[in-house]
Amino acid sequence: ICFTGVLDPENFRDFKLVKRTQLSHNVAKFTFALPTPTSVLGLPIGQHISCRGKDSQGEEVIKPYTPTTLDSDVGSFELVIKMYPQGRMSHHFREMRVGESLAVKGPKGRFRYQPGQVRAFGMLAGGSGITPMFQVARAILENPKDQTKVHLIYANVTHDDILLKEELEGLASRYPDSFKIYYVLNQPPEVWNGGVGFVSKEMIQTHLPAPAADIQILRCGPPPMNKAMAAHLEAIGYTPEMQFQF
């Protein structure tokens, strides 16, 4: 069966919001219907979409997001959105109600994934930077022919800030040999067996695959984190070819 993707790289297309699930005080999952129950978004693994909305001043704003669904999920796609108090696009999502439409364009992005292109991925994610990592990890793990190993370090401020926690734990328990997660928190709870503070060089050396020609380190997080991680990776000996920043 050939499923054609409904995304248009040149023009925005409207998709109707059919469900909104509040996950925490500032995070919600938005489910958008595709034109038919068998439609697929048509988003290559590791690519993202551009979403258009209005900020609190009524000004147009366009921002990239990575759906948490794959093209194996037909008929709809989901976005897990963290809404920041000052975020311009956050305002649009906060105000969005079921029945309204979101303008979407894509696919976008430089990352192209082919099963087996590396032996292992190391992933460094911060906050909502987890969404492209989750998409790539899910695609790898749910493909029985793909033997790629995935090692994730995921940094947040507090335990409540961990996005997609249930989904990540689900993947880790279903694919224990292929998927490992190490959480790092700035403000950990009393009882905590993950990392504390910021992601250090030592954490990377302990939890991610060592520099090699057949591994790649993916990173996605706030700019200060990306900058710090780039410095750590360089110091450890990862070449620019071994790294990709979303």
Automatic annotation (TrEMBL):
Pfam families: FAD_binding_6, NAD_binding_1. GO terms for biological process: electron transport chain. GO terms for cellular component: mitochondrial outer membrane. InterPro entries: CBR-like (IPR001834), Cbr1-like_FAD-bd_dom (IPR008333), FAD-bd_FR_type (IPR017927), Flavoprot_Pyr_Nucl_cyt_Rdtase (IPR001709), FNR_nucleotide-bd (IPR039261), OxRdtase_FAD/NAD-bd (IPR001433), Riboflavin_synthase-like_b-brl (IPR017938). Its EC number is 1.6.2.2. FAD binds at residues 64-65, 80, 82, 89-90, 131. Keywords: FAD, Flavoprotein, Membrane, Mitochondrion, Mitochondrion outer membrane, NAD, Oxidoreductase, Transmembrane, Transmembrane helix. Its cofactor is FAD. GO terms for molecular function: cytochrome-b5 reductase activity, acting on NADH. It is an enzyme of class 1 (oxidoreductase). Residues 10-114 form the FAD-binding FR-type domain. It is found in: Mitochondrion outer membrane. Belongs to the flavoprotein pyridine nucleotide cytochrome reductase family. This is cytochrome-b5 reductase.
